[in-house]
Amino acid sequence: MPTHAEKRVLPYTPAQLYDLVAGVEHYPEFLPWCVAARVREREHDLIVADMVIGFKMFRERFKSRVKLDPAARRIDVTYAEGPFKHLQNHWVFAEHPEGCEIDFYVDFEFRSKILQKVIEALFHEAVKRMVHAFELRAEALHGPALGSARKRD
After folding, report:
1. Residue 2: CB partners within 8 Å, gap ≥ 6?
2. Contact (CB, 8 A) for 34 and 24
3. More confident residue, 144 or 71
């Protein structure tokens, strides 16, 4: 069961980064392996979305529930239907003297043993690329970070 947790400080406001992650429909524009995203339902604090992920010969669709909590600056993603046994993901955005501290966590397991073995071999590199893609998207939307302001925990 691959799990990844990290904290990172970026020179953007918590609101800017929260909005970036909450913009699920824009993921195919910048997120590696995200082939398509469709918002099925959007309420005040909940997004139900279909995502299609693709890597080489694999292509899988899954539905997730994205719980938005702007007051707590937290986004929780849970699995609703598709190829996973389970999927849990959260993002927490906290004020920091250098911008925003992001707390990111993901834990999932595919039902397919073959797909699980493939992803386990690539998991940590894939997650690093995905987190970096969000960082690059923030830079594209809000301007480049100052070299001295970048800090990785």
Report:
1. 106, 107, 108, 109, 119, 120, 123, 124, 127
2. no
3. 71
**Predicted pLDDT at 82:** 87
Which two tokens mark 117?
A: 């073995």
Count of positions (residues) in the chain? 153
> What's the CA gap between 106 and 5, in Å, rounded?
7
Q: For residue 107, which amino acid is it?
A: D
Does residue 142 sit in helix, strand or coil? Answer: helix
| Spatial distance between the Cα atoms of 45 and 33, rounded to a whole number of angstroms | 26
Tokens for 57, please give them. Answer: 């010969």
How many Cβ atoms from other residues are within 10 Å of residue 69's Cβ? 12
Res 152: pLDDT = 40
Q: What's the start-to-end Cα distance of the chain, in Å?
A: 24
What is each CA distance from 56 to 35, 118, 143, in whole angstroms? 12, 11, 32
Residue 123, both tokens: 């998991």
Beta carbons of 44 and 61 less than 8 angstroms apart? no
Record the pTM. Answer: 0.86
Residue 146 DSSP label: P
* 151-152 β-sheet, strand order: 34-42, 46-55, 58-69, 74-81, 84-96, 99-110, 3-10, 151-152
Where helices occur in 10-147 by DSSP H, the ranges are 14-22, 113-142
